[in-house]
Amino acid sequence: MNSIAEKHSQLIKQKAKELGFLSCGMSKAEFLEDEAPRLEKWLQQNMHGEMKYMENHFDKRLDPTKLVEGSKSVVSLLYNYYPQKLQREDTYQISKYAYGRDYHFVIKDKLKDLMQFIQQEIGEVHGRAFVDSAPVLDKAWAKRSGLGWVGKHSNLLTKQVGSFYFIAELIIDLDLAYDTPVTDHCGSCTACIDACPTQAIVEPYVVDGSKCISYFTIELKDDLPSEMAGKFNDWAFGCDICQDVCPWNKFSKAHQEPLFNPDERLLNYSKKEWEEITKDVFQDIFRKSAVKRTKYEGFKRNIKFVSDE
């Protein structure tokens, strides 16, 4: 790879670090040949449940050059969200990624800063920033960029830090020095598969999204299925079980992002307090949080379902 591309890559990685990203890797923007049959099979087996948006933009999902015209590189970035303090244990659980301010906004701002820096330092570079909000296969790109391997629970894993981080991308029309994938370090471990109360990890590396507690508590708008009663283990929004039991997550370190710090009530509320939460208090605690995706009614539905267990 030529020295200019190398120099540009180093500049971007250095700036990403300054902006607080855990790590940054580059890969060539091209068709994801390995992912195509996998995604097709997953959709055919209806493992996306009611998430019909997963069926849209199949070509763009697999080929960033169709998503961002003229793109040459995918810059993948990781941003830590592991909290400094956890919720009390004897209460309804909220996924750690949703403790603080909605990550879409926090990370999008940082990506804008990074893009501006690239344009100032390197010149006329065009592209788009993505934070889990477009047809981009985040984990596949992060894996290609050497940021980690995809574990048996289908989350990206990194030796030094585990998996409690967000993945984001810049897809740009700039040639860079590309990183190489790392090897898989799950070995014979099946902790995540064994721990999942709804058996959503149907085989190593394959998650049936339509059986996942996160899917039920966030994506599913209808009534929760009665056959799942008693299987939610107190999770009211999302679920971290497969990550919590993963041995690699003993390396998780607390994030340094003040915007991800939660409202104290989120950490301290008892079951009774959650059960009696009013709409106003819900709006106040989760004012700028991803939990608002379920809306008050959805959150109450989840609490009621879990409290009946």
Automatic annotation (TrEMBL):
Binds 2 [4Fe-4S] clusters per monomer. Residues 174-206 form the 4Fe-4S ferredoxin-type domain. Transmembrane segments: none annotated. Pathway: tRNA modification; tRNA-queuosine biosynthesis. The keyword Secreted does not apply. InterPro entries: 4Fe4S_Fe-S-bd, 4Fe4S_Fe_S_CS, QueG, QueG_DUF1730. The active site is at D132 (proton donor). [4Fe-4S] cluster 2 binds at C196, C212, C239, C242. It catalyses: epoxyqueuosine(34) in tRNA + AH2 = queuosine(34) in tRNA + A + H2O. It is found in: Cytoplasm. [4Fe-4S] cluster 1 binds at C186, C189, C192, C246. TRNA binds at K221. Keywords: 4Fe-4S, Cobalamin, Cobalt, Cytoplasm, Iron, Iron-sulfur, Metal-binding, Oxidoreductase, Queuosine biosynthesis, tRNA processing. Cob(II)alamin binds at R61, D132, L156, I167, S214, C239, D240. Gene3D superfamilies: 3.30.70.20. Its EC number is 1.17.99.6. Its main location: cytoplasm. Its cofactor is [4Fe-4S] cluster; cob(II)alamin. Belongs to the QueG family. Catalyzes the conversion of epoxyqueuosine (oQ) to queuosine (Q), which is a hypermodified base found in the wobble positions of tRNA(Asp), tRNA(Asn), tRNA(His) and tRNA(Tyr). Monomer. This is Epoxyqueuosine reductase. It comes from Psychroflexus planctonicus. The gene is queG.
